[in-house]
Amino acid sequence: MKNKLPEALIELADFLGKEATLYAVGGSVRNFLLGLGFDDIDITSALPPSLLIEKLKGSKFKVADSNLRVGTVIVTSCDFKAEYTCFRQDSYPVGGAHTPSKVEFCSDITLDAKRRDFKANAVYYDISKGEFVDPLGGIEDIKNKILSATVAPKKVFSEDGLRILRLCRFAAELGFDIEDGTMEWAIKMSDNVLDISKERIATELKKILSADVRYSSLNNEYAHYRGLKLLDQTTVLTKLFPVLKEGKGVRQNPKYHDYDVFEHIMQTVKFAPPSVRLAALFHDVAKPMCLARDGNMYNHPQESARIARELLGAKGLKLSNAEVEKICRLIENHMYNLLNETKTPKIRWFLAKNHDIAYDLISLIRADAMAAKGVTSPSADRMESLFNDMLKAGVPLCVKELKIKGEDVLDVRPKMRSEILNKVWEKSVKYYLLTYEEQLKALGDIKRQIIKEKK
User: Fold this and answer.
1) What is the phi/psi pair of residue 125, to 5°?
2) 131-186 pLDDT, tens digit each
3) Beta strands 124-126 and 80-86, pairing class
4) Which domain holds residue 442?
5) 91 and 158 belong to one structural domain
6) Do 332 and 302 form a contact (C-beta atoms < 8 A)?
7) Residue 129 and residue 247: Cα distance in Å, rounded?
8) What is the CATH number of the domain that holds 46?
9) Do 386 and 405 fall within a single domain?
10) What's the pTM value of the predicted model, to 2 decimals?
11) Are 16 and 103 contained in the same domain?
12) Which of 97, 266, 357, 451 has the fewest beta carbons closer than 10 A?
């Protein structure tokens, strides 16, 4: 492993010398043993951060405070950067709120290993000696591709509810199984995820939804689907989003669907690319409510978007406004042209107005069709073909891309200029009016029509 480490890290280990044996620990060590690449390297030793800072004074290494209370600092040197945390023991309050209430620095590597989540993440690498140190048997777990808790799993999950999400993520990303006792207590302690900050939940959920692309060399197809199913098995998924549970057992027309609402949602996520998986996760959540309220599911796109906005926005996972709006637009429009009977000019106009999400929407529609009956979507294929043609032809995707400009409507009352330009844009998109002359003629026709209507 030593020849894979940054030269600056080896220099740091040698600089500290016998005063503090420096170890790499966590994901970087685990991934090396799995033959995977690693980026971030967490480092640790028995040296408290205050002594580390003193030791590195005047050296090439700089130390920045990250969280001194828990013994964490950032060590840098030119392009090198690593997070350092000294050996410690943690105490947590009742619940699973992730942050320890009491931290004690220690010199015992085994005690430090026992505060970590899973044995596979508690293997150390002595950087100077080039030797692995394995206090809890993590190397064996890595060889067997299994995740087990460092200590009694009840203690591991009672301390930090986020560990249940991480358990599902690591299992999905790495293709590991979960030891029975560890899974049993993940289920029993699943309420603790409700004590975790929404931002941390959002981060872990996004990582689970992209688990299949985390390590490309593993060819771990549908790992994101497995991650979601593990979240469901632990009951975390439906505790975070109770509305998903309402879809379990809700049958759909067998002519169009192979699964109940819940599993259809899971399958849609399975077949969706990473960019639309959050939208896929919530695209049909309102179906049970609509069925109970209206006797049908016709309004589910709009209602699902409304629910998604609540779950993902400021009162939910606190995603950015831009991300929430994009997801909700995808959900609202995922049934567009379902029967593939919409006329071409109307589809062109729809695509122009939604050009920023067009390819993502097409991907969501395709995934929805695959999840329904395992078939492709002729509607999505047609929309993609039309949109590709529009881009190739240079169809204006907004008013600013028209060949005509503001000076061409100076003879129109200011209040009407925007309306007229939008009508020219619509006509140009629908009927491929791509030259200045064609758009100018359309402008004249529209102005005459408006004048006629005003009389």
Assistant:
1) -130, 115
2) 999 999 999 999 999 999 999 999 999 999 999 999 999 999 999 999 999 999 99
3) unpaired
4) 399-454
5) no
6) yes
7) 55
8) 3.30.460.10
9) no
10) 0.93
11) yes
12) 451
